[in-house]
């Protein structure tokens, strides 16, 4: 594994120093008027969203609608063409890569497929963020790996290779890796995708457990409406590059808006289009 690249504390590195951290606000993320184009495609068209601390905010929306692009903005992997993103009181939109490091240490990520290294066993995969951060003490690494795997109930599998794991186990190993640095926030990209309902439910319980027991802020991108109603404190519906709806799961479920009901019930209206039928057009709810 590559050697870590610690941030220099010498005067020559002053331009890379992180800005002073202001007192915490009630929101972990504050996103204001964010626009992003990728090539000729205008993906985000003025996104505004606040994510409260120690709660679970779920982002839903059509495939290809910009959810993953938005998630990458929250950790500075992409920078907006316009607008601002504040993470734990620090505005990150114009920060350089080294300046982002202290912010990123506060955030863990669970990628859609777990994103495990096939050549490393479970323990090595989970330990990787610590090793990259410069931790070399074997006892500390072992203890923190075991603690993280204990949280996701996989401590007895630490010597297995990724190929020996089921899809649900891979997700849980990815989650252990996301939490090993004790982040204040975890971003989840489709955490239940490709899983059967029972395994998906176990992942949802883990997300809730981390939020309630460890006061972790969660941002979850998903298409799984069962998960939405199980884990969400509030829901943001990303549609046509902007937040079309933001409210509680109950408000989402009970909304009379046709576009919302079509999405949550999975209605395409393909049969109506073929038969020449049309449905009433309702105004958008911002």
Quick synopsis:
The chain is α/β, with parallel strands linked by helices and 286 residues long. It has helices at residues 67-74, 97-104, 122-132, 138-151, 167-179, 197-214, 225-231, 249-254, 258-265, 270-275; strands spanning 27-38, 41-52, 56-60, 82-87, 90-91, 107-110, 185-189, 217-221, 234-239, 242-247.
Describe the fold and architecture:
This protein is globular. Helix 4 packs across helix 5 (about 165-180). It has helices at about 65-75, 95-105, 120-130, 140-150, 165-180, 195-215, 225-230, 250-255, 260-265, 270-275, and strands at about 25-40, 40-50, 55-60, 80-85, 90, 105-110, 185-190, 215-220, 235-240, 240-245. The protein starts with about 25 loop residues before the first strand and ends in an 11-residue tail after the last helix. With about 290 residues, it is an alpha/beta fold.
Percent range for β-strand residues: 15-25%
Tertiary shape = globular
Q: Could you tell me the mean pLDDT?
A: 86
> How many individual β-strands?
10
What's the SSE pattern?
A: EEEHEEHEHHHEHEHEEHHH
> What structural category arises from helix and sheet content?
alpha/beta
Note the main sheet: 6 strands, mixed
- Number of separate helices: 10
Q: How much helical structure, as a percent, in the residues?
A: 25-40%
Computed over alpha carbons, the radius of gyration is 20 Å
Uncertain regions spanning at least 5 consecutive residues = 1-15, 277-286
Strand order of the largest sheet: 6-7-8-3-9-10
How far apart lie the N and C ends? 47 Å
């Amino acid at each position: 594994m590559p050697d870590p690249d610690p941030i220099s504390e010498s005067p020559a590195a002053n331009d890379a120093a992180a800005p002073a951290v202001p007192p915490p606000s009630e929101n972990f993320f504050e996103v204001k008027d964010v626009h992003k184009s990728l090539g000729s495609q205008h993906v985000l068209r003025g996104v505004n969203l606040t994510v409260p601390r120690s709660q679970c905010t779920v982002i839903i929306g059509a495939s290809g609608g910009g959810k993953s692009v938005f998630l990458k903005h929250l950790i500075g992997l992409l920078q907006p063409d316009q607008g601002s993103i504040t993470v734990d009181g620090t505005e990150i939109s114009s920060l350089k890569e080294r300046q982002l490091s202290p912010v990123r240490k506060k955030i863990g990520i669970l990628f859609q497929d777990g994103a495990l290294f096939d050549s490393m066993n479970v323990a090595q995969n989970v330990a990787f963020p610590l090793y990259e951060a410069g931790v070399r003490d074997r006892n500390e690494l072992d203890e923190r790996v075991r603690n993280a795997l204990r949280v996701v109930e996989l401590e007895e599998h630490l010597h297995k290779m990724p190929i020996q794991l089921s899809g649900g186990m891979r997700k849980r190993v990815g989650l252990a890796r996301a939490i090993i640095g004790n982040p204040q926030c975890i971003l989840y990209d489709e955490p239940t995708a490709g899983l059967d309902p029972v395994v998906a439910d176990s992942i949802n319980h883990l997300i809730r457990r981390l939020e309630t027991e460890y006061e972790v802020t969660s941002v979850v991108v998903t298409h799984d409406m069962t998960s939405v109603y199980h884990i969400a404190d509030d829901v943001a519906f990303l549609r046509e590059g902007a937040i079309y709806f933001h409210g509680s799961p109950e408000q989402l479920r009970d909304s009379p808006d046709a576009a919302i009901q079509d999405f949550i019930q999975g209605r395409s209206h393909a049969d109506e289009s073929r038969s020449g039928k049309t449905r009433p057009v309702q105004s958008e709810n911002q």
